[in-house]
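mind reviewing this stuff:

——
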Amino acid sequence: MKAIVYDGPNQMHLEDLPESSPQTGEVKLRVAACGICGSDVHGYTGESGRRTPGQVMGHEFAGEVVDCGEGVSDWKPGDRVAAFNIIGCGACPFCAAGQVQCCPDRKVLGVNTGKVGAFAEYISVPAENLAVLNDEIPYAEALLNEPLAVSYHALANVPESAKTLAIVGGGTIGQSLAMVAKVMGKWDVYLMEPLEEKRALAERQGAKAIPSNVETLRAHLKEDHGSDAALGADAVIEAVGIEKTVLTALDAARPGGTVVLLGNLAKEVTLPLQHISSNEKHLVGTYGFNAQDFRQIVTWINEGRFDLTPMITGTCTLEETPRVFEDLAAGRRQAVKIVVEP
């Protein structure tokens, strides 16, 4: 089968790999669509250190069942499915509690499993990690279950008392946060993003999009919610993961507010300790999502609750994928989501 093999920083190539059969408890899928995630690009450049030479990347995907391993009875060839990409050890307290994203030995398909990811014609997935897709749902849109579920999981950290929510960053995750927040209907949402085209998309998703300027945010909060709200948003989600945007998120939160740290590109950032403690700001980390989050999001996708079409800003074949990565890494191409269609 054809697959894209990562060779090391800024290098990948198309290769014919042996096609394997699903193991016990697994389902083999024909990959219909796999999204290029920002973390894939940062792994490709070597910036994050989270990809290993020789691996096949790709962790946002959907496809069609072509074969089932021993012990699988819930799926059959031809079934259309979305996939949950995290695999836990199954034995730790976190897995027992359904919090597989916190499992110390968790594996993510297309990231660190040691198996072929979804930048390939076929991938095998644990049967329990699949959810059915309605016939009318395009595969390219179905793969967005991953950033949407990440967002849903992050939003669970916003206090029930919060009325205003600011999102820092208008990339795939920022847009997904805006979409899920709209469906949940709990907050007045402001999205902070420097690029006009991404602000326009966020407006379509129901957020009030503004430039990445805290003073502008405070002015909008004051206009919409009164002078007390001008101190900052009740909750802020940082969706980029670099020091500059983390500091923006901290500044955007009101005293006593909550800052959810979702972006994690930088390995380390320097934080203003006195500002955080003297203003009693609450910092919460969030990572990935769990099976319950995944199934809720797929249910909403099947119900047509999201406007997903504008999120897909390009497609490519496996043959074209190395060049697309090169362009994304060099900044020659801006995109919300590019989909590889093997």
Notes: Residues 2-144+308-340 form a domain with the Quinone Oxidoreductase; Chain A, domain 1 fold (CATH 3.90.180.10). The two ends are 10 Å apart (CA to CA). The first strand starts at residue 2 and ends at 8.
